């Protein structure tokens, strides 16, 4: 039975809402869009690969390409006085008006799972969504659950904005994640694996292999797997080994035939080996099955009797805590903290449901983990390995291929070689929409042209995440080596990219770039480029302000916006902001920027309040927001006040959302939608009716405490009327009832709307944008 959130009833002249029940379902209508996160792919290895190919790096699925899960994961602990907040009518806003953010995040990951469960999703994309779900949940436990447990243990946890006590939130997470993980496993076992088998791609277990396949894999095991395995015994002379986070492990029980004593041993599946091995063409077996084959365990424990074996996987707290005020050298402090991260306390234990109770008791005792944190599942564990399967070259089982073209405003300024970006920007601003507009022929070309141009004197750049073979970094190095002044602000605390960013910071320094790490206590998350060019007697500044990272690979998977402009007020703003980041400056106001942590929240709230005045006066008024997360209570309360005044409000959110839409007397004019699909919806847009002169902003900030209080974020005001109209059309399309999306109800449940009343598919906003670009290039499908 689904508990309902009661309609708010007047009590003592005030409006009250009950907090969401901790066991309330999160909606079960049949995608990181966050964390939907799209990872870099890993290879699926053949039966007898070379040593080099079998050891091909299996990328951590939470690294650069995946981790704008960083979008939703960080803790929001900043105080907000919920009591006493006044609504539009002068009455206090009701208690329980915020949805629980952890429950909302789990609902987001359920939407990812629903795309994996959807039979209309191409099969290999379904496998990809299963891997994304698993990767998302890993990071959720490593950060959010770990942080909540730490705060409970230290006594600093407080009641959440939703009204739930910390322990209630933790139990909600345990119960709901258990249900979702069971659905996830069932979707793999009953739908995706069998569907792939029908298409000739077989994901099998060891006992399903033919004798010939087992023989080939035995040769592979002896030659390339056995030498890197290290069985670790547990006895008085051998303490229980350290179990690293997210590693796959084999618990083996053996008996000494001479003494009759039984012993426990652990074998770690080396993380650098491929997750699935190809036993024969298009037949794949998990590597742990190969290791656990009876003849192979006999090789690992010669002379011993193998009694039983079970797979298990541990998740640890992998959040970072760096006290910057006490760190003389942030780089060294962070490197030390990265080492500590490997030894964080356990937060989840996944085991095969067939595990022997005695073995499980041993694991529980040695790992010091509670029964509530044990997740029995059918094998195989760790379905992030499906990223490799999803990368198979079977285009008919994937979304149709789309290759982005050059933006038309840049393509029109073709020269004999490549577009002249500077000449284009002298003519007009360029509004980019990735991945529909090519990143390589726009932002990347902008920086590469700047690096090669002898008239460019300086380049200033923020880097939050970038790829391992980054052409952006190469361009900056080329610019510095040619004598240009190059300032690079590298955010070395970008979650799960810290090690990569430390490497890039040192490489840039060695090339002569001025590298800084931002301001103490603040992450630098804004996406900014500034190029200073000598043109005659004048210095002209060219700018790029974006919503996404300077990451050429994820720019093909993440939906983002960017503004390229030669407008001098934007260039002056960026100059001032970079001076603040690299030197000593107390500037807090800008011409066309809103910058966190000083002016961004207040700037947005004041504009929302202004829409109330316009609506009262009968002038056009609306608020439209597109973001990854909407949980900041001050912003949400401003939306409630505007809704109480009758202002139409649309919120297009990818991940978590604390807004309760459609509540009588509180949020009747608020609609909340979520769109997930082949691309990660990642752009942030803020549009206001402004009495018929629409005001539109784009930038890097989500509506979270961490973005608005603990980060350097920047929004830029879009002034070109055509660009404002384009962005408003985008928002209208995403919010339209004729567009496929999930709708949020006042009770916190999301309902999928994918079909019209006649059972026909609703418009897919991403496919609509793809088709528009194809038509523009004359390559549209008939």
TrEMBL record:
Q: Where does ATP bind?
A: 136, 558, 654, 682
Q: Which residues form the Polyphosphate kinase middle domain?
A: 213-388
- What Gene3D superfamilies does the database record attribute to this sequence? Endonuclease Chain A, Polyphosphate kinase middle domain, Polyphosphate kinase N-terminal domain
Where does the record place the catalytic residues? 525
What happens to this protein after translation, modification-wise? An intermediate of this reaction is the autophosphorylated ppk in which a phosphate is covalently linked to a histidine residue through a N-P bond.
Q: Where is the Polyphosphate kinase C-terminal domain?
A: 420-586, 593-755
Query: Which spans of this chain does the record mark as coiled coil?
Result: none
Catalysis: reaction(s): [phosphate](n) + ATP = [phosphate](n+1) + ADP
Query: Positions of the region Disordered?
Result: 1-51, 68-93
**Domain Polyphosphate kinase N-terminal stretches:** 98-204
Its required cofactor(s), as named, are: Mg(2+)
Where composition is biased (Polar residues), the residues are: 35-51
Q: What is its EC number?
A: 2.7.4.1
Q: What does this protein do?
A: Catalyzes the reversible transfer of the terminal phosphate of ATP to form a long-chain polyphosphate (polyP).
Family classification: Belongs to the polyphosphate kinase 1 (PPK1) family.
Kindly give the HAMAP family that the UniProt entry links to this protein.
Polyphosphate_kinase
What PANTHER family does the entry give? POLYPHOSPHATE KINASE (PTHR30218)
The name under which this protein is listed is: Polyphosphate kinase
Q: From which source organism is this entry? A: Streptomyces longisporoflavus
């Amino acid at each position: 039975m689904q508990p309902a959130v009661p309609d708010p009833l007047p009590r003592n002249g005030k409006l009250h809402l009950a907090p969401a029940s901790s066991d309330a379902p999160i909606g079960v209508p049949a995608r990181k869009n966050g964390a939907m996160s799209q990872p870099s792919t890993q290879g699926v290895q053949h039966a007898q690969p070379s040593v080099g190919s079998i050891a091909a790096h299996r990328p951590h699925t939470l690294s650069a390409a995946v981790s704008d899960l960083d979008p939703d994961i960080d803790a929001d602990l900043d105080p907000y006085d919920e009591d006493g907040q006044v609504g539009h009518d002068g009455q206090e806003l009701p208690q329980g008006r915020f949805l629980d953010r952890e429950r909302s995040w789990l609902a987001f990951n359920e939407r990812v799972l629903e795309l994996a469960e959807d039979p209309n999703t191409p099969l290999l994309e379904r496998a990809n969504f299963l891997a994304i779900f698993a990767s998302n949940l890993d990071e959720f436990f490593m950060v959010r659950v770990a942080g909540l447990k730490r705060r409970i243990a230290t006594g600093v946890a407080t009641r959440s904005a939703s009204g739930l006590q910390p322990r209630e939130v933790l139990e909600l997470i345990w119960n709901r994640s258990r249900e979702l993980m069971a659905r996830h496993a069932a979707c793999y076992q009953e739908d995706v694996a069998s569907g792939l088998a029908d298409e000739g791609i077989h994901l099998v277990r060891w006992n399903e292999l033919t004798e010939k396949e087992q023989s080939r894999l035995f040769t592979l095991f002896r030659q390339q797997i056995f030498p890197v395995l290290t069985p670790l015994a547990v006895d008085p002379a051998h303490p229980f080994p350290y179990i690293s986070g997210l590693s796959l492990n084999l618990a083996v029980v053996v008996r000494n035939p001479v003494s009759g004593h039984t012993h426990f041993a652990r074998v770690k599946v080396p993380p650098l080996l491929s997750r699935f091995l190809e036993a024969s063409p298009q037949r794949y077996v998990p590597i742990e099955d190969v290791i656990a084959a009876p003849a192979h365990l006999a090789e690992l424990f010669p002379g011993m009797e193998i009694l039983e074996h079970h797979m298990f996987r541990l998740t640890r707290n992998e959040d970072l805590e760096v006290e910057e005020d006490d760190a003389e050298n942030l780089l060294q402090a962070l490197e030390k903290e990265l080492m500590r991260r490997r030894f964080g306390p356990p937060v989840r234990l996944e085991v095969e449901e067939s595990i022997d109770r005695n073995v499980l008791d041993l694991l529980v005792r040695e790992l010091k983990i509670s029964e509530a944190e044990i997740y029995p599942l059918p094998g195989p564990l760790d379905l992030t390995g499906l990223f490799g399967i999803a990368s198979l070259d079977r285009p008919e089982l994937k979304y149709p291929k789309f290759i982005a073209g050059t933006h038309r405003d840049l393509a029109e300024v073709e020269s004999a070689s490549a577009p002249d970006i500077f000449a284009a920007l002298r003519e007009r601003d360029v509004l980019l929409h990735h991945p529909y507009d090519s990143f390589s022929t726009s932002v990347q070309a902008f920086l590469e042209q700047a690096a090669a141009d002898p008239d460019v004197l300086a380049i200033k750049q923020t880097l939050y995440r970038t790829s391992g073979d980054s052409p952006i970094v190469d361009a900056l190095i080329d610019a510095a080596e040619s004598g240009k002044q190059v300032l690079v602000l590298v955010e070395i605390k970008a979650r799960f990219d810290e090690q990569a960013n430390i490497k890039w910071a040192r490489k840039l320094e060695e090339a002569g770039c001025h590298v800084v790490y931002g301001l103490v206590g603040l992450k630098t998350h804004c996406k900014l480029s500034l190029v200073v060019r000598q043109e005659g007697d004048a210095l002209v500044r060219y700018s790029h302000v974006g919503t996404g990272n300077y990451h050429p690979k994820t720019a093909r998977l993440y939906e983002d916006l960017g503004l390229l402009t030669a407008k001098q007020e934007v260039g002056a703003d960026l100059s001032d902001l970079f001076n603040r980041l690299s030197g000593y400056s107390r500037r807090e106001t800008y011409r066309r920027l809103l910058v966190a942590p000083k002016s961004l929240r207040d700037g947005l709230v004041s504009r929302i309040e202004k829409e109330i005045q316009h609506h009262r006066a009968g002038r056009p008024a609306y608020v439209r927001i597109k973001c990854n997360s909407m949980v900041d209570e001050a912003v949400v309360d401003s939306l409630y006040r505007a809704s109480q005044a009758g202002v139409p409000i649309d919120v297009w959110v990818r991940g978590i959302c604390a807004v309760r839409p459609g509540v009588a007397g509180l949020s009747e004019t608020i609609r909340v939608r979520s769109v997930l699909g082949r691309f990660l919806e990642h752009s942030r847009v803020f549009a206001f009716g402004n009495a018929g002169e629409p005001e539109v902003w784009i930038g890097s900030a989500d509506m979270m405490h961490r973005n608005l209080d603990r980060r350097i974020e920047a929004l830029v005001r879009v002034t070109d009327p055509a660009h404002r109209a384009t962005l408003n059309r985008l928002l209208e399309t995403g919010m339209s009832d004729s567009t496929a999306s999930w709708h949020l109800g006042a009770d916190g449940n999301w309902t999928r709307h994918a079909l019209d009343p006649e059972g026909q598919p609703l418009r897919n906003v991403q496919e609509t944008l793809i088709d528009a670009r194809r038509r523009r290039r004359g390559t549209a499908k008939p």
